[in-house]
């Protein structure tokens, strides 16, 4: 199979987000990747120097910061949404998949942005301040958990149904219910369980379900049948994938998760800087 990143060999894509900096360096064999907390700017600069690329393509909210720090190494600044729209089909191709001509591309990062992509041209059509940052913040507050990996693993072992109030809890009699009984009626409104794993699962569903509802409506408005979810929030996080999958089905949409989707912006920046 041909290497979809071949034109960008030697160009280091750097996506400096609010929480994590993603590095992606295309090579003849594939891509080398790394994630470093954005707050650790010295470590980011050290990695860039150590990887010794020919040049740098920077994107994300903090991308412009790099230009001043690269003493001599050329830096191209790439608009974030263009980078994402370029990166997604390349990552899909790398994984042996193909994206349709029209789809929604969702960056579920610290916050959430939703792009409508038509023939690889992206337009931001919506977003939400619910995102991975919400998970980290509420995870700390409710469960005293600092590590994202620990929170995601805990959520996978939990069951939100004893925390959230379901339609079936309200329509509990034998008669007809106007809505499916296992539908969530109100996040955190039952609280029959305060087990950390159940709270973690309910938290993952609070963010995932609402993002999926927003994206389902936007997909309907845009005439898209596939929603491609990317961002570091999907790292080892099957509980989040599962809720997005489920809710997308209500809209007759397919939720897709790209391997290495966290690096969508970094890969796309490198590819766009190559042309
Ligand atoms: N090692 C980690 N450290 C911190 N957060 C992590 C880690 N792994 C996954 N996450 C999750 O990923 C989220 C960040 O995702 P991502 O890197 O896509 O966002 P970002 O680019 O930093 O933010 P934005 O795009 O909103 O500026 C965090 O909020 C957290 O929920
Ligand atoms: Mg980002």
SSE blueprint and pairings:
Blueprint: E1 11-16, E2 20-27, E3 30-37, H1 41-51, E4 55-59, H2 64-67, E5 75-77, H3 80-94, E6 102-108, E7 112-118, E8 121-128, H4 132-143, H5 148-157, E9 165-166, H6 167-170, E10 184-186, H7 196-222, E11 226-230, H8 238-250, E12 254-257, H9 264-273
Parallel strand pairs: 1-4, 4-5, 6-11, 11-12
Antiparallel strand pairs: 1-2, 2-3, 6-7, 7-8, 9-10
Query: Which geometry do the CA atoms define?
Result: globular
Radius of gyration: 20 Å
CATH topology descriptor of the largest domain? Nucleotidyltransferase, domain 5
Number of strands: 12
Total count of helical runs of at least 4 residues = 9
Give the helix/strand class.
alpha/beta
3D architecture notes:
- This protein has nine helices and twelve strands.
- The chain has 275 residues and is of the alpha/beta class.
- It folds into two domains: 6-97 and 262-273, Nucleotidyltransferase, domain 5 (2-Layer Sandwich), CATH 3.30.420.40; 127-257, ATPase, nucleotide binding domain (Nucleotidyltransferase, domain 5).
- The strands form three sheets. A five-stranded mixed beta sheet has the order 3-2-1-4-5, sandwiched between helices.
- Helix 3 (80-94) crosses helix 9, helix 4 (132-143) packs antiparallel against helix 7 and helix 5 (148-157) crosses helix 7 (196-222).
- Bound molecules: adenosine-5'-triphosphate and magnesium ion.
- Magnesium ion (MG) binds at residues 15, 17, 60, 107, 109, 265.
- Magnesium ion (MG) binds next to loops.
Give me some keywords for this one.
single chain; 275 residues; alpha/beta; Nucleotidyltransferase, domain 5; 5-stranded mixed sheet; 12 strands; 39% helix; 24% strand; binds adenosine-5'-triphosphate; binds magnesium ion
